[in-house]
């Protein structure tokens, strides 16, 4: 008998929410049961951004998690991973403990990604699967949060097809997790709290960081670019920057706590500071202050080529803890496609920017994101992308087949590119990506590189793995005590996407000069 048959043969109780007291909790909750709306998201509010510094767990929620466990499954980007850290921090402040065993959890959250259709399909598959656990334990609370919950169509599908889901809450509502949980414990209905209106920046949110070597730090939220294929501006709202003093304070604390690398996060980090009304302060200014903090490495992601200004390049050229690696999504090498994508730059602008970056930061590595098979993309346009890849000589790329997202302008375009042609293009592009990655890595054979050791290799316990400043993966044999340290490694062999080396010595932690 397999697991499914065993469960089916059990006498299972359906969730009996009607047993719970019906009570009006409106006095506790600022109820915002609005359905998410893409139309609303597009109306970018000119409202002032409010900063809240006073997040704390209200008295009424104290001890809510005593004796209860939570499990969060995260899909998608680093922003989502970081949101998971915040939600885990809130759970722990409420008294919950985390569990690695999903079927034993009292609360299960799926922190979802909406960027492509296959990301969404994975979540729907998992939701179907969770029904089994819910049958076994009707008290289990199941929640969907993250980008998918900002989509009207997703919320409707959950209402219709997944009645075992108890909570749906959006990316702007994470700080309301205690309220949402309390409501879910009390209510018979699905608790939906998705604000299509964003606008606030909330500081002092607790965080349960997943690692002790590298840490994520949000510098801004949202995106105002509205590239025609992209769902992010709808799911993450308008651009809002955190104040520099908050970011600098957080990085200082992380440095003092022994973290070795910071990844600054934002959907479009080069727009950092555009929304400040009281000062002229941009990403270059922020990086110039962060480089004075005594921490070995600082990175940022993701850049938009249009907002990448010369001051930022000038600051990055100062080096120190600012690494020589920039992730710079180009998406396409064809001016016609870039225009239809509404990327607001041309191939020539991109190449000019690359030249300026390369001239200012010798040996810099560039990585990128590319979408193939955009609606009506011609063979010639695709070949322009291949040619641009070669011209820039990217180190690595994340490559995707275009996936229509409901509500975005591109989803309405008629598309004459057959699916198998799209797949072939992806295949051809990936061959070029591999060729360049292999070439770049082969050039390192015999060299000594600095590696931040992150852990043991996925395949072998006695092999350690870490990344160079330029984000290249290195495997080498050494004792596990080196995990968390910066070490020198001599590169022996390059494969397509990683390096194999020999441990040389621990790098002395020199202070980064001011
Ligand atoms: N289809 C395919 N790829 C997409 N991306 C964003 N939206 C889509 C989409 N609809 C890719 C872009 C972006 C990366 C994070 O995901 O390349 O840079
Ligand atoms: Fe999406 Fe990035 Fe374009 Fe913003 S800049 S709309 S996040 S692809």
TrEMBL record:
<dbReference type="Pfam" id="PF01938">
    <property type="entry name" value="TRAM"/>
</dbReference>
<keyword id="KW-0479">Metal-binding</keyword>
<keyword id="KW-0963">Cytoplasm</keyword>
<dbReference type="GO" id="GO:0005829">
    <property type="term" value="C:cytosol"/>
</dbReference>
<keyword id="KW-0808">Transferase</keyword>
<feature type="domain" description="TRAM">
    <location>
        <begin position="442"/>
        <end position="505"/>
    </location>
</feature>
<feature type="binding site">
    <location>
        <position position="77"/>
    </location>
    <ligand>
        <name>[4Fe-4S] cluster 1</name>
    </ligand>
</feature>
<dbReference type="Pfam" id="PF04055">
    <property type="entry name" value="Radical_SAM"/>
</dbReference>
<dbReference type="GO" id="GO:0046872">
    <property type="term" value="F:metal ion binding"/>
</dbReference>
<dbReference type="InterPro" id="IPR002792">
    <property type="entry name" value="TRAM_dom"/>
</dbReference>
<feature type="binding site">
    <location>
        <position position="230"/>
    </location>
    <ligand>
        <name>[4Fe-4S] cluster 2</name>
    </ligand>
</feature>
<feature type="binding site">
    <location>
        <position position="223"/>
    </location>
    <ligand>
        <name>[4Fe-4S] cluster 2</name>
    </ligand>
</feature>
<dbReference type="InterPro" id="IPR006463">
    <property type="entry name" value="MiaB_methiolase"/>
</dbReference>
<keyword id="KW-0411">Iron-sulfur</keyword>
<dbReference type="InterPro" id="IPR005839">
    <property type="entry name" value="Methylthiotransferase"/>
</dbReference>
<dbReference type="GO" id="GO:0051539">
    <property type="term" value="F:4 iron, 4 sulfur cluster binding"/>
</dbReference>
<dbReference type="InterPro" id="IPR006638">
    <property type="entry name" value="Elp3/MiaA/NifB-like_rSAM"/>
</dbReference>
<feature type="binding site">
    <location>
        <position position="113"/>
    </location>
    <ligand>
        <name>[4Fe-4S] cluster 1</name>
    </ligand>
</feature>
<feature type="compositionally biased region" description="Basic and acidic residues">
    <location>
        <begin position="15"/>
        <end position="25"/>
    </location>
</feature>
<feature type="domain" description="MTTase N-terminal">
    <location>
        <begin position="68"/>
        <end position="186"/>
    </location>
</feature>
<dbReference type="InterPro" id="IPR058240">
    <property type="entry name" value="rSAM_sf"/>
</dbReference>
<dbReference type="Pfam" id="PF00919">
    <property type="entry name" value="UPF0004"/>
</dbReference>
<dbReference type="InterPro" id="IPR013848">
    <property type="entry name" value="Methylthiotransferase_N"/>
</dbReference>
<feature type="binding site">
    <location>
        <position position="147"/>
    </location>
    <ligand>
        <name>[4Fe-4S] cluster 1</name>
    </ligand>
</feature>
<keyword id="KW-0004">4Fe-4S</keyword>
<dbReference type="GO" id="GO:0035597">
    <property type="term" value="F:tRNA-2-methylthio-N(6)-dimethylallyladenosine(37) synthase activity"/>
</dbReference>
<dbReference type="InterPro" id="IPR020612">
    <property type="entry name" value="Methylthiotransferase_CS"/>
</dbReference>
<keyword id="KW-0949">S-adenosyl-L-methionine</keyword>
<comment type="similarity">
    <text>Belongs to the methylthiotransferase family. MiaB subfamily.</text>
</comment>
<dbReference type="InterPro" id="IPR023404">
    <property type="entry name" value="rSAM_horseshoe"/>
</dbReference>
<keyword id="KW-0819">tRNA processing</keyword>
<feature type="region of interest" description="Disordered">
    <location>
        <begin position="1"/>
        <end position="25"/>
    </location>
</feature>
<feature type="domain" description="Radical SAM core">
    <location>
        <begin position="209"/>
        <end position="439"/>
    </location>
</feature>
<comment type="function">
    <text>Catalyzes the methylthiolation of N6-(dimethylallyl)adenosine (i(6)A), leading to the formation of 2-methylthio-N6-(dimethylallyl)adenosine (ms(2)i(6)A) at position 37 in tRNAs that read codons beginning with uridine.</text>
</comment>
<protein>
    <recommendedName>
        <fullName>tRNA-2-methylthio-N(6)-dimethylallyladenosine synthase</fullName>
        <ecNumber>2.8.4.3</ecNumber>
    </recommendedName>
</protein>
<feature type="binding site">
    <location>
        <position position="227"/>
    </location>
    <ligand>
        <name>[4Fe-4S] cluster 2</name>
    </ligand>
</feature>
<dbReference type="InterPro" id="IPR038135">
    <property type="entry name" value="Methylthiotransferase_N_sf"/>
</dbReference>
<dbReference type="InterPro" id="IPR007197">
    <property type="entry name" value="rSAM"/>
</dbReference>
<comment type="subunit">
    <text>Monomer.</text>
</comment>
<keyword id="KW-0408">Iron</keyword>
């Amino acid at each position: 008998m397999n697991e499914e048959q065993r469960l089916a043969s059990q006498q299972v109780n359906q969730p009996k929410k009607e047993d719970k007291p019906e009570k009006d909790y409106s006095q506790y909750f600022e109820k915002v049961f609005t359905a998410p709306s893409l139309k609303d998201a597009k109306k970018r509010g000119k409202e002032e951004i409010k900063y809240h510094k006073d997040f704390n767990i209200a008295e009424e929620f104290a001890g809510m998690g005593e004796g209860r466990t939570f499990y969060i499954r995260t899909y998608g980007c680093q922003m989502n991973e970081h949101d998971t850290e915040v939600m885990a921090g809130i759970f722990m402040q409420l008294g919950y403990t985390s569990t690695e065993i999903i079927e034993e959890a009292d609360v299960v959250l799926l922190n979802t990604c909406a960027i492509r259709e296959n990301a969404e399909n994975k979540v729907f598959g998992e939701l179907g699967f969770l029904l089994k656990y819910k049958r076994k334990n009707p008290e289990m609370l199941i929640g969907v949060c993250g980008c998918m919950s900002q989509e009207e169509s997703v919320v409707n599908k959950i209402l219709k097809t997944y009645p075992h889901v108890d909570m749906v809450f959006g990316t702007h509502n994470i700080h309301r997790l205690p309220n949402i949980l309390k409501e879910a414990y009390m209510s018979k209905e699905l608790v939906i709290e998705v604000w299509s209106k964003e606008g606030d920046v909330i500081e002092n949110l607790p965080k349960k960081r997943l690692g002790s070597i590298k840490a994520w730090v949000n510098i801004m939220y949202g995106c105002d670019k509205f590239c025609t294929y992209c769902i992010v501006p709808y799911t993450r709202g308008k651009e809002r920057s955190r104040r520099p003093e908050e970011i600098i304070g957080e990085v200082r604390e992380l440095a003092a706590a022994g973290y070795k690398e910071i990844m600054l996060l934002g959907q479009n980090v080069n727009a950092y500071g555009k929304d400040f009304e009281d000062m002229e302060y941009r990403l270059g200014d922020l990086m110039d202050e962060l480089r004075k903090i005594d921490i070995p490495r600082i990175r940022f992601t993701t850049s938009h080529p249009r907002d990448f200004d010369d001051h930022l390049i000038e600051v990055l050229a100062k080096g120190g803890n600012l690494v020589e690696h920039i992730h710079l999504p180009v998406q396409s090498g064809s001016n016609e496609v870039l225009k239809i994508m509404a990327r607001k730059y041309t191939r020539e602008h991109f190449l000019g920017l690359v030249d300026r970056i390369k001239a200012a930061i010798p040996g810099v590595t560039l990585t990128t994101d590319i979408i193939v098979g955009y609606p009506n993309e011609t063979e010639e346009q695709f070949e322009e992308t291949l040619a641009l890849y070669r011209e820039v000589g990217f180190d690595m790329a994340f490559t995707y087949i275009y996936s229509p997202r409901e509500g975005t302008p591109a989803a309405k375009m008629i598309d004459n590119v057959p699916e198998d042609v799209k797949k072939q293009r992806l295949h051809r592009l990936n061959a070029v990506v591999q060729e360049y990655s292999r070439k770049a890595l082969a050039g390192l054979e015999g060299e000594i590189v600095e590696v931040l050791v992150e852990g043991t290799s996925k395949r072998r316990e006695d092999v350690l793995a870490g990344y160079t400043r330029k984000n290249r993966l290195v495997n080498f044999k050494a004792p596990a005590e080196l995990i968390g340290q910066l070490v020198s490694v001599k590169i022996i062999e390059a494969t397509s996407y990683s390096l194999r080396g020999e441990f040389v010595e621990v790098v002395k932690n020199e202070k980064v000069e001011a």
